């Protein structure tokens, strides 16, 4: 059976062990922040001179994606030799790391490439650290708003040094929800059905074009929830820790324990989660 990500709080340790664990996680979080800032500078340097290719229909990639990922991998590789690396770009295997394997950096060098291509200021760099079957560090950097979202398991989550907390909305008619669409909508029309379903039951809906920002905004209390059917682990690895540390809830669409290596996700502020799950049982295709 596939290992599910364990998002509960860290186990109890003796004071000395807790201090070491805290220092360990904070060092990795700070390094990921540095890597994300370096990658953002690379993205800016490629502005107006990149070319666009398609990995699949409407699924875009640019030289900036590749250069950003290379910058992150080289920087973190120097800081933490022996760690594994799982990035969106390139031909390397994109599979769940072995439970007994080394810590793995999971990276999306531009989450929101289509926005980046169109100079729409809704994209980010996403970096997560997977260790012993768990996500323990997450960093999201939005270079347009100069917002650094960062968190570490059991220690909290912040944006530019300010502690993150999810919202308190517990009814759909109070909620601002976000979602994501696949690049190619052919055969995925159920996504539009769910958009209509929730648009008639919530305060409003948003679609930013960046999974990582959607989830970071849930952690920050800007969105009350988020759902999607077509994520990859590099889309969510940086933001999952933020949501949990800010007081939110993550599950798969059916309410089961969240597995970031599966494509579906249901993310909320916490209080709203039962209402979303209840709605899910009566929505399109139920």
Going across the major beta sheet, what is the strand order?
3-4-5-6-7-8-9
The CATH architecture of the largest domain can be given as: 2-Layer Sandwich
Count of individual domains: 2
List low-pLDDT spans: 1-12
What general form does the structure show?
globular
**What percent strand?**
15-25%
Structural class: alpha+beta
Report the strand count.
14
CATH class of the largest domain: Alpha Beta
Describe the structure.
- This protein has helices at residues 15-45, 63-79, 113-117, 190-199, 211-219, 233-245, 273-280; strands at residues 52-56, 59-62, 84-87, 104-111, 124-131, 134-142, 147-152, 156-159, 162-163, 176-179, 204-206, 225-228, 249-251, 265-268.
- It is an alpha+beta fold and 286 residues long.
- It has 2 domains: 15-163, 2-Layer Sandwich (Fructose-1,6-Bisphosphatase, Chain A, domain 1), CATH 3.30.540; 172-280, D-Maltodextrin-Binding Protein, domain 2.
- The strands form 3 sheets. It has a 7-stranded mixed beta sheet with strand order 3-4-5-6-7-8-9, sandwiched between helices. A 5-stranded mixed beta sheet has the order 11-10-12-14-13, sandwiched between helices. Strands 1-2 form a two-stranded antiparallel sheet.
- α5 (211-219) packs parallel to α6 (233-245).
- It is globular, with a radius of gyration of 18 Å.
- The protein starts with 14 loop residues before the first helix and ends in a 6-residue tail after the last helix.
- 43% of the residues are buried.
- Residues 1-12 have low confidence and may be disordered.
